[in-house]
Design a protein that fits this description.
This protein has 256 residues and is mainly α. The C terminus is likely disordered. The chain folds into 2 domains: 108 residues, Winged helix-like DNA-binding domain superfamily/Winged helix DNA-binding domain (Arc Repressor Mutant, subunit A), CATH 1.10.10; 141 residues, GntR ligand-binding domain-like (Four Helix Bundle (Hemerythrin (Met), subunit A)). The protein has 9 helices and 4 strands, in the order H-E-H-H-E-E-H-H-H-H-H-H-E. The chain is globular and about 55 Å long.
């Protein structure tokens, strides 16, 4: 009993460090520094982050609950590698939830929120004009997260954000090229216009359509994308049986 209490206290003291490690691992995974299908090497990650292996192990468990990694018995923890079917399903789910979030926000948006959404549109237009795709991509993510955070639908918000992290596991640039960015920006403008007007059904349709169109852009990219191989990073190991070239028909998680 006494040892259990000591362990519990030690874990609580360690929690802030675990959170820091978890956030860093999440960043590395979402930015593709550790690729889909690669094993998290506890020892190397701990050395790289300057921590013991315990926080790395706890952080991996947290990321498993969010669907970013998966534990394989007697093998280790691997970054999830999404199939085409899983990726397309995520887009469908996000479309439904995004429509709901936009609809609820159209009912409750304050003038401050409306101004903030207009500000996002202006910054994204500036990024397109400057040809700055990374800037646009970052603003695009922030725009949708802002809609989710401003919506009163708390449970839908949590689901949307979690699914968004899984979608980013695809690490596939569906927003590249002026035409794709302009289409995406026009869809954002339609969402904001409906929310500003208080058009609940219009906001629902615009929010859902934007994600459905994103799915269509993904499918189009898959048809054009050729397989590419990927060598594991220094802090990751190739998953057993997964050291092969990417197949765009079955393995989205390895396309970069």
């Amino acid at each position: 009993m006494r040892q259990h209490i000591r362990d519990s206290v030690a874990l609580r003291r360690q929690r802030p460090l675990v959170l820091e490690v978890r956030d860093e691992l999440e960043r590395m995974i979402l930015l593709g520094e550790i690729a889909g299908g690669e094993r998290l090497n506890e020892a190397l990650l701990a050395e790289q982050l300057g921590v013991s292996r315990g926080p790395v192990r706890e952080a991996a468990r947290s990321l498993e609950r969010e669907g970013l990694v998966q534990a394989v018995a007697n093998e280790g923890v691997y970054v999830r590698s999404l199939s085409v079917e899983e990726g397309l399903e995520l887009y469908d789910l996000r479309a439904m939830i995004a429509g709901y979030l936009c609809a609820t926000l159209a009912q409750t948006a304050t003038e401050k929120v409306k101004d903030e959404l207009r500000g996002f549109l202006a910054r994204m237009e500036a990024a397109i004009t400057a040809g700055n795709e990374p800037e646009y991509f970052g603003l695009n993510l922030a725009f949708h997260d802002h809609i989710a955070s401003a919506s009163p639908a708390a449970r839908a918000r949590v689901l949307y954000v979690a699914l968004g992290k899984e979608v980013r596991l695809l690490r596939l640039k569906v927003l590249n090229g002026a035409e794709a960015l302009t289409q995406s920006s026009d869809e954002h403008a339609a969402i904001v216009a409906a929310i500003v007007a208080g058009d609940v059904e219009g906001a629902r349709r615009a929010g859902a359509a934007h994600h459905t169109n994103g799915k269509a852009r993904l499918i189009d990219r898959l048809r054009r994308e050729e397989g590419t191989s990927h060598e594991p990073a220094a802090h990751a190991d190739r998953a057993p049986g997964r050291g092969r070239d990417a197949d765009t028909r079955t393995d989205l998680g390895r396309i970069t």
